[in-house]
Amino acid sequence: AQSVTQLDSQVPVFEEAPVELRCNYSSSVSVYLFWYVQYPNQGLQLLLKYLSGSTLVESINGFEAEFNKSQTSFHLRKPSVHISDTAEYFCAVIGAGGTSYGKLTFGQGTILTVHP
Amino acid sequence: GAVVSQHPSRVICKSGTSVKIECRSLDFQATTMFWYRQFPKQSLMLMATSNEGSKATYEQGVEKDKFLINHASLTLSTLTVTSAHPEDSSFYICSATDGIYGYTFGSGTRLTVV
Predict the structure, then answer these.
(1) Which partner from A46, A82, B70, B113 sits 20 to 30 angstroms from A13, CA to CA?
(2) CA nearest to B108, candidates B86, B82, B79, B85
(3) Alpha carbon distance B99, B30 (integer Å)
């Protein structure tokens, strides 16, 4: 079994400030890790993913996340946020084997609100 | 890039009627499709996994007779909510994959049962 915990349900921040959205996971098998973003009344869009290789992964719009196996974390960061980053962000994992193989498990979501 | 089209985006139906939601992969063949349900201010809960040409696998607690899933081709899966009731009102999202590395989500369907 696997689970994902997003430690903050809401994160308010001012424009151009840095932000970190925290994500911890637990799993009995190796995992692949994802961050998705959801705008109101829309589906999910993939922001970035970690499959293997470098533990630091980046998105095209300035977000980055670092896989930390020892701390079982995959925190999402951005050094300077914009108003347009306001959305809900979901951390998700897929088990690389076992009964969880191929199934995405989502965290509870973090609502990021960027204020002017 | 991979695109998944989900239709309709919003639907309002009367209690007791059935509603069909379609999920299409537009530019790739989806070997597996997933259906999720999202309650307000909550995360996505996986309802079922469907593979083309075979019966869907439902998660524990999901009524298979109420939520009928058909994955008749590599590009189309449908979710039919039968005899809908107000408690079925929710946001339903599908996703499709052609392998473990790529999960593309549809835009979601807001179902309101009155």
Answers:
(1) A46
(2) B79
(3) 8
Which of B41, B43, B101 shows the shortest C-beta gap to A107? B43
Chain B residue with minimal CA distance to A4?
Answer: B43
- A110: phi then psi, degrees, rounded to nearest 5: -130, 125
| CATH 3.20.20.80 is held by the domain A2-115 | no
Question: Each residue of A66-116: pLDDT tens digit?
Answer: 999 999 999 999 999 999 999 999 999 987 665 555 678 899 999 999 999
Q: What is the pLDDT of residues A34-66, one digit of tens each?
A: 999 999 878 888 899 888 888 999 998 899 999
Kindly state the DSSP code that residue B86 receives in the 8-state scheme: G
Q: A-side interface with B, Cβ within 8 Å?
A: 32, 34, 36, 41-46, 51, 90, 94, 102-109
Nearest to B43 among A41, A46, A106 (CB): A106
User: In b/e form, how buried is each residue of A19-40, taking b as 16+ CB within 10 angstroms?
Assistant: bebbbbbebeeebbbbbbbbee
Residue recorded with tokens 């083309």:
B52
